[in-house]
Specification:
The structure holds two protein chains of two kinds. Chain A is an alpha/beta fold. Chain A has one domain: 3-Layer(aba) Sandwich (Peroxisomal Thiolase, Chain A, domain 1). Chain A has twelve helices and eleven strands. In chain A, α1 crosses α2 and α5 packs across α9. Helices cover 8% and strands 37% of the residues of chain B. The longest helix of chain B is centred in the N-terminal third of the chain and has 10 residues. The radius of gyration of chain B is 16 Å and the shape is globular.
Chain lengths: 383, 122
């Protein structure tokens, strides 16, 4: 047994973002609360109907409690799983199981962060562990740099191939009104940007923005009665292999190689049947690693795959159609925004809508390539 | 009685670099554990040879005139991996696959660093 999932029996009834880019003067709980209000309005569901709260905030160890207080609810269950940027996909797994079992009737997943307005630095309470800390790696950047350096050594991945990920993200962002970073960006721009922790340069890094997002989940019949196009959840899996990526057997293989196939098996889909991919691109190497691990290209060929233009507008596999963490927004734990963009694609309302898309994969990454979680959304045709 | 982390610290303070080995064989374990990860097997302390190979490396840039410093992952000869730094190298000379040997820098908080090993075959 294991991996039994209620395919298509739970759906996204509402979804919303708030304050993407800059939203000065707001605390993290105010940001998250506003996103919840908007997502409930989107679903036409009353606040009082919410009975499950799932949340991670950057600055609040008791965020589930805080959200109950802020919303004025007495939820049946709260979940403050903190698997970094993969937290929200993990929340979704738990929420789906609890909704299908009838323990909950209406679950809300929420996130909000103000890291741009609160100082402009990536604010995370996470630190290197005591075994890594004496060597002063930049956290989390140097851990990704070590993976990138090894990937280049092991497979011949080039600096230009890494840069092409940032260029593709910018092309998508340029036609998304919600995206924070717009304007021309070339391979040469990326390679000429400031070296931070080799081989990672400034333009290989995600943005530092504000932003909040929330989703409302119900059992599918309820969502069908709502005002939005049906977005059923077809599969969802979380995989956790370690905390520090220094402990990876092979630093070029992430736990996405487990979460992806498990989620796709639940959905009854293969990578070739996924119409669009929204993944957590904290750094350009992430996109390459995850596309390989999720099965969209062979291990070691990710660099060539992204440089071929496959993931750009008009490419064969639309990836991060909102501009991703590299050019749309990155408030610190990006997972929610990958899921909301996947939901918009399934509804047919994305800024860069992929015509005819019926399946969307959203992938979250937490820690330093440590925790990985994959969710597959469909539309009404898929259930 | 101390936990494995404190036992490791105490040995390092005495100038000894310890790692753990599962009773009955298997790859060495680092960071220290109360039992072997994945199997639960009993562990014993052994002196690390200190020999290793650079598995990956990054140079962290600082505001000039401060020079960049390196952070590496080292595959220890006994089978475990640890973070470290290599002394006496430059971005041009430090490379993945480089043979290195551990050295303990004593002090209030002793630390393990690595030096390049001259290859006999050049």
């Amino acid at each position: 047994m294991g991996d039994t999932f209620p395919r298509g029996r739970v759906a996204v009834a509402g979804a919303a973002t708030f304050g993407v880019g800059e939203m000065p003067g707001h605390s993290t709980i105010e940001m998250a609360g506003k996103a919840v209000q908007l997502a409930l309005a989107d679903a036409a569901i009353n606040l009082a109907e919410v009975d499950g709260l799932f949340i991670a905030l950057p600055d609040d160890l008791f965020a589930g409690l805080s959200l109950a207080q802020y919303l004025g609810l007495h939820p049946r269950f709260t979940d403050n799983n903190r698997a970094g940027g993969a937290s929200f996909m993990s929340h979704l797994v738990t929420a789906c199981m609890m909704l299908d079992a009838g323990y909950l009737d209406c679950a809300v997943i929420a996130y909000g962060a103000n890291q741009r307005s609160s100082g402009g630095k990536l604010s995370t309470p996470a630190r290197p562990d005591r075994w890594d800390a004496p060597y002063h790696p930049m956290y989390p950047l140097s851990f990704y740099a070590l993976a990138a350096a090894r990937h280049m050594h092991q497979y011949g991945t080039t600096r230009e191939e890494l840069a092409s990920v940032a260029v593709a993200a910018r092309l998508w962002a340029n036609t998304n009104p919600e995206a924070f970073a717009k304007g021309p960006l070339t391979i040469e721009d990326v390679i000429a940007s400031r070296l931070i922790s080799s081989p990672i340069r400034a333009r290989d890094c995600c943005l530092v923005t504000d932003g909040a997002a929330a989703m409302v989940l119900t059992r599918t019949p309820r969502a069908k009665d709502g005002p939005q196009p049906l977005v059923p959840i077809l599969g969802a899996a979380a995989a956790t292999w370690y905390n520090s990526v220094t402990q990876a057997d092979d630093i070029t293989v992430t736990a996405a190689a487990e979460s992806g196939p498990r989620a796709m098996a639940m959905a009854g889909l293969t990578p070739g049947q996924i119409d669009t991919v929204q993944l957590y691109d904290a750094f350009t190497i992430n996109t390459i690693l995850f596309l390989e691990d999720l099965g969209f290209c062979a291990k070691g060929e990710g660099g060539q795959f992204v440089a071929s233009g496959a993931i750009s507008p008009c490419g064969s596999l639309p990836v991060n159609t909102n501009g991703g963490g590299l050019s749309c927004c990155h408030p610190g734990m990006y997972g929610m925004f990958a899921m909301v963009e996947a939901v918009r694609q399934m509804r047919g309302t994305a800024a860069n809508q992929i015509a005819g898309a019926q399946t969307a994969l959203a992938h979250g990454n937490g820690g330093t390539l440590s925790a990985q979680a994959t969710v597959i959304f469909g539309n009404a045709e898929t259930v | 009685m101390s936990g494995p982390g404190a036992e490791w610290d105490a040995a390092l303070a005495e100038g000894r670099f310890l790692i753990q080995q599962p009773l009955g064989g298997g790859a060495a374990v680092f960071p220290p554990r109360a039992f072997a990860p994945g199997t639960g097997a009993e562990l014993e302390w052994v002196e690390a040879s200190g020999l290793g190979t650079v598995y990956s490396a990054t140079w962290i840039q600082r505001k000039p005139p401060e020079p960049p410093y390196n952070v590496v992952l080292v595959d220890l000869a006994e089978g475990a991996r640890m973070m470290g730094c290599v002394e006496g190298v430059t971005p041009e000379t430090l490379h993945i696959g480089m043979a290195v040997k551990a050295r303990i820098i004593a002090g209030e908080t002793p630390i393990i660093v690595f030096d390049p090993v001259e290859q006999a075959d050049g």
